[in-house]
């Protein structure tokens, strides 16, 4: 019997690379860019960006904030790093320092500030709004740009609202808007419309550059069919204790679970402090590979910061020190997101930032 | 008009210190210990632990994992650091290296491993189960301990399930269990039953050591009355863009919001990638201090990783570059937790681990 205390986070770099390469072949006529914002969705941009640079010859990267670009700029020296949140007083110095950073300009105000404070003649990207109603120049803003303003940019981009729903009317609506605005204002510029989800909508959505993020990290961005991507994240956590739970006893904070019969419980050394959603309280599933069988337990009671409590009454042969499988190839972050009432993106973004995991990068 | 892009996280160290000192006076006959697990709920244990050590003479700290203890051990050289998740093969080396780390032993299996592998004669804490049905020796486990086993420990502890509900039957139930088990097995040992919530239940819940965590960080652990603690966390994020939203248009991913009249929207540079719960989509509130008035906006559509979209139709005088108040003294993480369908603990634990914030520690 082994006694372990820490959870384990496995990040499969090989599968990220394979996913990236598969996405490249699906968008074979576009330039691939890797989205490594939010520290590569928490998985570690300082490891993933240089891997894609070296092993897949990736030369275009997207981050949200300039500070995220600064953290990887030296490891990808010949690459462009596009900064989605753009250029501001709080990032001006970073743009001065690093010529590789390319701001994405999304409003007339930001563009005015760019023209006043820009460090040199590098050309930004312009983000135009086509239906998401998030960041981007609206048509009336575009109409106010002068002829020389329109020459200031190196690429035009937009972003899909419903790219993960193949038949959603919004997709063609945005595509038509993008096509019209691009032809009217930026007929000669390269264009980028789609992130991972848009890549699967077909070649007319792929334009000149595709922004590969979620799918590269294994998320199913085309949930209307089986995931073509390889799973990237596995989480395990040790069983710290196994105990009898007599009928009538309560479990966890606020006593939200009461045993209706005698049960067996396991205390697992992982909780919301490790990024696992607390909304899995009383609904989540946990798996155990013991006695040669994959067996299922159930989260009971409220999840705590450091632990969760599982009903393991039907799990045969479980011992203290065995590892609970929290996510795996057969129960992915997408599955967990569905059970937790959120999306895998949010869980991934949280999990990876926690420093209590024994973190393992799988390279082969 | 200023143009900013990054969100700001303000952590008020002075208020943490004041909260700690107030909690000390409420539990005046107990030894105070500071709970700094999960990187001080994400707020930065490497700053908060030494502050409490130096300015409040705190000499007892609780972490979840030994690795968390290692990160602060040199900054609090004369303190004891109790490790709640205990002693295992994956933490043995850290316990050998740092004599200040004191394991909390919570199962017979862990105790057996401790006796086999312990680095020296330091005495651990024993965690006993009194009603939470999480970690801890059950009574039948205690009954099996030999006379000499019972001498192996320096303190006995347990943990309340419902300490934040003053009249919950579980409180007296656990108090009676704790009292009985302690008197039977550990009559001469100091005892610790309560975290912040139990401190407010009265002196009979305070025993010899109280574990001050959530309340110290400003969370209301006695929600049946007005919070006596000072607020610790303020989050601000810049307005990146303001736009008209014509009647009938959709907002955000999956087009979950549709404008039933002409609206004005603001795009705020913060999202779930910064630890803000995605469950605030279409329900969250955001505040703006403009034109000398505190004005309220509403999150509409799905929150994204880097941005959220707010209805600011009724906000008078808002400009690009103004800061949205995401949490503040008047809308705390407790309030946000309620709106997001979770608890402040979970949000705090996420927010602080994000490195995109401009992080400010307020000392005065």
Can you walk through the features of this model?
The structure is a homodimer of 364-residue chains. The first copy, chain A, is an alpha/beta fold and 364 residues long. The first copy, chain A, has two domains: 13-217, Alpha-Beta Barrel (TIM Barrel); 231-362, Lyase, Ornithine Decarboxylase, Chain A, domain 1 (Beta Barrel), CATH 2.40.37. The first copy, chain A, is 27% helix and 23% strand. Chain A has helices at residues 13-26, 37-41, 45-55, 66-70, 92-97, 108-117, 139-143, 147-150, 169-185, 196-199, 333-340, 344-351; strands at 8-12, 31-35, 60-63, 80-83, 101-105, 125-127, 155-157, 191-192, 209-212, 233-245, 250-251, 257-258, 263-268, 285-290, 293-299, 308-311, 323-327, 358-362. Chain A has an eight-stranded parallel β-sheet with strand order 8-7-6-5-4-3-2-9. A six-stranded antiparallel barrel of chain A has the order 10-13-16-15-14-17. In chain A, a hairpin with a 5-residue loop joins strand 11 and strand 12. The longest helix of chain A is centred in the middle third of the chain and has 17 residues, at 169-185. Chain A starts with 7 loop residues before the first strand and ends with a strand. At the A-B interface, helix 2, helix 4, helix 6, strand 10 and strand 11 of A face helix 2, helix 4, helix 6, strand 10 and strand 11 of B.
